[in-house]
Amino acid sequence: MAVKVTDVQVLENPTAFTSPFRFEISFEVLTPLENDLEWKLVYVGSAETNQYDQELDSIEVGPLQTGFMKFIFEADPPDVKKIPIKDLLEVTVILLTCSYRGKMFIRVGYYLHNEYTVDELKENPPPVPIPEQIQRTIMADHPRVTKWQISWDDPVQAQTQSDLESNSTGFQQQEQQSSISISSSSISNNLTEQEKKNSVQTEETVQTQNHSQKIQTIKEGNFIG
């Protein structure tokens, strides 16, 4: 692997729904590369279909010489008008991905919880959403991470999937252990409808049956932490 992501910190969390997403990303370049890395952030608008997924922003990072790099990735909040009203509140997913030469080699999923901050609106959500009154909380202690080995600058290498374990504070990976993790109903076009129906229910972030049902439609995976 030519690039090793060493840490991702979710900044300003929780925050208002209308605030930008901000991540501090650290990675190590083990081998100089010819092209830049492309980072993307996707907001999953509905657990039932990828039709409502929104790519919030993308950024290219380079040149990539051997050593450590750190940067802040900031992305605008989703357009509330493009999210089904029934899926706006409670639990959804955001996906942070990184690709090289069009090949994704890491995907980080976080569960996200949206709720009104005013009790009256919590009990009786308005038919027309009021984004300014919604608070967004990212479950930053439980990222789901999937990694793939890619060909990098050597087109002969075959692509295979490899999943590594990170702890609850981020990506401090243990060299001798591995596990599978990741989230979401969407970002990869290769996900099938059947995969979207597979699930694992969280125990810490989902307290109601409605929350559980929505998470169960996202995708099969295990929490890291």
Write a short abstract of this structure:
The protein is mainly β. The protein is built from 4 helices and 11 strands. Helix content is 10%, strand content 37%.
Task: Please give a handful of descriptors for the protein shown.
eight-stranded antiparallel sheet, 4 helices, elongated, 225 residues, three-stranded antiparallel sheet, mainly beta
Q: How would you characterize this protein structure?
A:
- This protein is mainly β.
- 10% of the residues lie in helices and 37% in strands.
- The protein has 4 helices and 11 strands.
- Strands 2, 4, 5, 7, 8, 9, 10 and 11 form an 8-stranded antiparallel β-sheet that branches. Strands 1-3-6 form a 3-stranded antiparallel β-sheet, with no helix packed on it.
- The longest helix is centred in the last third of the chain and has 8 residues.
Number of helical segments? Answer: 4
How much of the residues is beta strand, in percent? 35-45%
| Distance linking N and C termini | 24 Å
Radius of gyration: 18 Å
SSE topology string: EEEEEEHEEHEEEHH
Q: What is the 3D shape?
A: elongated
pLDDT averaged over residues: 77
Q: What is the helical fraction, as a range of percent? A: under 10%
Tell me the total number of β-strands.
Answer: 11
Uncertain runs: 156-225
Structural class: mainly beta
Largest sheet: 8 strands, antiparallel
